[in-house]
Amino acid sequence: xxxxxxxxxxxxxxxxxxxxxxxxxxKKIIKTICKADSNCVDVGCHKGEVLDIMRKYAxxxxxxxxxxxxxxxxxxxxxxSGSTVKIYDxxxxxxxxxxxFNYVVTNPSYSGLIKRKYDNPHEEDTSIVVKTEKMxxxxxxxxxxxxxxxxxxxxxxxxxxxxxxxxxxxxxxVIFEHGIGASDYYGSSPDKIHNLFTNCKMKIFxxxxxxNKGKQLTLAEFEKQYYNQVNYYFVASA
Length: 238
Known about the structure:
Number of strands: 10
CATH architecture: 3-Layer(aba) Sandwich
Number of domains: 1
Order of helices and strands: HHEHEHEEEEHEHHEHEHHE
Number of helices: 10
Strand content: 15-25%
Strand order of the largest sheet: 3-2-1-7-8-10-9
Mean pLDDT: 93
Structural class: alpha/beta
Distance between the termini: 43 Å
CATH topology: Rossmann fold
CATH superfamily: Vaccinia Virus protein VP39
């Protein structure tokens, strides 16, 4: 019943929550920037909701999904069997190896390499060991990346640090989460994210400004968005 209600709410034209607004804007961005043969990367694939949208608007592209939670990974492999989608069970980071991963059993979407703050204090979690890898190493050099979505509950800086060569080379559009209560547990901060994209000759926007061809966020504006919790989803592009 809970899943049915979620699907019903998502189908409505009105966004009732901030997450629903971000979901609708993310879909618009994917629809806007994707060509039929665009290649996309979904980091923190979960059940493949965003990956499905990528496939819809880039049906001829090569797509890559990353999901380290074993049950979700198995479901994704089965879901995309026989397609051009490649699913990996790596937790993307800035290094290769293994790591302890905080798996939130009662709410898998909260899971990540480091335990973060939960909205519900009664969530149940456990530790599992996962493989870590850099996006720069996994994605073939001859594959131009056009779009990346990163939703890893605070670990976005690690993912980006492991994808610097792709960012510099391909200048993909990057839809990413960056918010207090998650990113700060990883030692991340707006200046580190902003500097990384600046060094890759890329700019940061709110989702609305990107769609409306509005102005980029300066470091001071990005910090204000973060520390005042105005937004926690953003877009980076050249």
